[in-house]
Amino acid sequence: MNNNSNALLGILAGTAVGATLGILFAPDKGINTRKKLVDEAVATKESIAEKASVLKNSVVSTAEANKETLDTKLQSLVSDASYKAEDVIDQLEVKLRELKAKNRKLQKS
What we know:
Elements: H1 2-24, H2 30-108
């Protein structure tokens, strides 16, 4: 996004410099020069709006792709945790059976 910001600043700076030089060296009448400036300002505004829209769409699609990747990783993590929890439960059940067997021996004595 930094490159896009730099490009936008470059466009704005270039427009300002071009407009200034155009006014200074314009061989045309003032009214015509003002009309050209207005037309150029409108064209620049539209260009910036279009580039901003493209940038917004790029950010949105990148965010959506990252969300899908995150959802996939989260699902994988939950699945792995579920398998590990199952392993822990199995081990606890084995230990519980051993403890119950030891307890029965102590109760018979």
